[in-house]
Amino acid sequence: MAKSALQIARAAYQPKLPKALQGAVKIQEGAATQSVADQADIAKLFPNTYGMPLLTFVPGEAKELPAVNVGVILSGGQAPGGHNVIAGIFDGIKSLNKDSRLFGFLMGPGGLVDHKYMELTADIIDEYRNTGGFDIIGSGRTKLEETAQFDKGLVILKELGIKALVIIGGDDSNTNACVLAEYYAAINAGVQVIGCPKTIDGDLKNEMIETSFGFDTACKVYSEVIGNIQRDCNSARKYWHFIKLMGRSASHIALECGLQTQPNICLVSEEVEAKQLTLDDVVTEIASAVAKRAENGNNFGTVLIPEGLIEFIPAIKKLIAELNDYLAHHEEAFKAVPAAEQRQFIIDNISKENAEVYASLPEGVARQLTLDRDPHGNVQVSLIETEKLLSEMVGKKLAQWKAEGKYNGKFAALGHFFGYEGRCAAPSNFDADYCYSLGYNAANLIGAGKTGYMSSIRNTTAPAAEWIAGGVPVTMMMNMERRHGEMKPVIQKALVKLDGAPFKKLVENRDAWAVNTDYVYPGPIQYFGPTEVCDQPTKTLQLEKA
Predict the structure, then answer these.
(1) Tell me, what's the pLDDT at 376?
(2) Where in the sequence of the chain do the CATH 3.40.50.460 domains occur?
(3) Which of 96, 216, 283, 329 gives 20 to 30 Å between its CA and that of 463?
(4) How far apart are CA 462 and CA 464, in angstroms?
(5) CA angle, residues 100, 167, 80, in degrees to nearest 5
(6) Nearest-CA neighbor of 249 among 277, 270, 221, 219?
(7) Is pLDDT of 440 > 90?
(8) What is the third-level CATH fold of 215-423+499-545?
(9) Alpha helices per DSSP H over 369-500
């Protein structure tokens, strides 16, 4: 297989580990835990895995552990560093006993159910160290929810002698890991289940999970490209660039990229919702910045837009909630209606208030709100071209202001969506180290006989040697939410905190950024060079931990 010069150089990179994991370990148990909300409901659903203590690894005495067979699953969308988690698990279980073996289930959780797997040997693992992507075993979005799936999975786990399963995924995948851990504990299956926090969106975090892996790299990749666009923008001086960034449920990526690149406008969905802004309010804010810059002769600029923005506008959020519910129960009736009549069919069948909002939307956006749902029954917001919607609406508002003599500039807009470009990048030094540590740490949780825990690496703004390794019960992160019209236990998503240091930093600067051209050009990810360039964590982490 042909390799680039960078691939060859990266293969030699040795990820750094926390001191606590560099030799034999022992566990320090912390306080008992409870879920973030709905404690009685969660405790009832998870009698075997609720209330377990927080765990921290500290150096311990070396002892011989029996060999263990471990299974690993990559679940959901790709994130930079997944291969290093697997390399960390492999090295970790081999350090406990050289005869331990690792099996990868192919193409996500479906591989466990359908008994599709491969053994991951040293030769295979070595090909994938410090690389992006999930192609070592592939990923998939099958949801592990049914007892029949758990039982089918158990057949192959028993056949291969697998005593522990590591599920690498986001909040939904780790929720499923927790349900699986509970079920296997309840039937005494003898299989431990450990989760690893993955999502470029950055919305799987709490006091024990400081960041999800892949967020650092993805934000650096997007920020490089935003910087390039801003340089182009400042060179040609004739376009406003509307840039939509991944982040369906939270605006962490947009905020981080905003802090790294200092665009003219950085929208944060959580603020739009908290201030009860309408779509017109958002359009007016952008148009005002365009007009102000035009007064200074600057008919160009950049706008960062979180992917999920549309869902956070309160009136549209209410509309989407009713559409999700309605389509969950009347999908066949809706699909039977000719396409040309579907818009009117929706207007006739939902509440008056929501029908009015739906009717006010441009035809294309209205259609996108009724397209097929994702596996969780939600609108696929990445298909909604918010960047085009906003640039069109800003253009109309400026034309109106021009007619009224309030605006005298030129406005030409270009739209972009950065999503897949960041998901499989070669991991930054931070993610290479963090992911390897998460995997190595997961191996130690397995060695300690734990189940229902997520691998946790903290103190991540310090040098890697000082990171704190341990485990957090997945039930600690859970609450009850409505999914597909029913209340289900799920890991609570972490939204941007409007009283948090990263958002405050944006607020402090955005009025100046809106008018001035204060662009920063981060450039490509630095893998080699001075520590302060190569090993920097995200601005988000630096501000949160300052």
Answers:
(1) 66
(2) 215-423+499-545
(3) 96
(4) 6
(5) 100
(6) 270
(7) yes
(8) Rossmann fold (3.40.50)
(9) 386-403, 420-423, 429-447
With residue 260 as reference, give the H or E element that holds it: helix 252-261
181: its two tokens: 């851990």
Using the structure block, give the residue that is written with the tokens 């390897």. Answer: 436
Strand pairing category for 301-306 and 265-266: parallel
Q: Is the pLDDT of residue 155 over 90?
A: yes
Cα separation, 260 vs 221, whole angstroms:
11
CATH: 3.40.50.450, 3.10.28.10, 3.30.2130.10, 1.10.630.10. Which one for 65-214+427-473? 3.40.50.450
pLDDT in tens, 279-333: 999 999 999 999 999 999 999 999 999 999 998 999 988 998 899 889 888 988 9
Q: Judge whether residue 377 has pLDDT over 80.
A: no
Helix (H, G, I), strand (E, B) or coil at 141: coil
Cβ neighbours of 420 (radius 10 Å): 11
H-helix or E-strand containing 166? strand 162-169
Type of residue numbered 255? L
CA distances from 302 to 36, 205, 252, 275, 436 (A): 38, 29, 18, 23, 36
Tally the residues of the chain: 546
Residue 305, CA distances (Å) to 258, 287, 310, 315 in order: 10, 14, 10, 18
CATH 3.40.50.450 in the chain, residues?
65-214+427-473
Secondary structure E strands in 297-350: 301-306
Q: How many helices, marked H, and strands, marked E, lie in the chain?
A: 22, 15
Which pLDDT tens digit goes with each residue over 356-370?
989 888 788 888 888
CA distance 267 to 510: 10
543: part of which helix (H) or strand (E)?
helix 539-545
Q: Is the pLDDT of residue 484 over 80?
A: no
- What is the CA 113 to chain-centroid distance, rounded? 25
Q: Is 141 a residue whose pLDDT tops 70? A: yes
Give long-range contacts, CB 8 A cutoff, 24+ apart: 445-448.
445/55, 445/192, 445/194, 445/471, 446/68, 446/70, 446/93, 446/163, 446/164, 446/166, 446/192, 446/194, 447/65, 447/68, 447/92, 447/93, 447/96, 448/27, 448/55
Q: Give the up-direction half-sphere exposure of residue 118: CA atoms within 13 A in the CB hemisphere.
A: 12
Please state the φ and ψ torsions of residue 103, each to the nearest 5 degrees: -120, 135
Burial class (CB in 10 A: 0-12, 13-18, 19+), 121: exposed
CA distance 178 to 191: 12
For residue 350, the one-letter residue type is I
pLDDT of residue 331: 87
Report the predicted TM-score, pTM, of the whole model to 2 decimal places. Answer: 0.94
Q: What is the mean pLDDT of the chain?
A: 95
Bridge partners for 331 per DSSP: none
Q: Which residues are catalytic?
A: 201
SS3 236: helix
| Radius of gyration for the chain, computed over Cα atoms and rounded to the nearest angstrom | 24
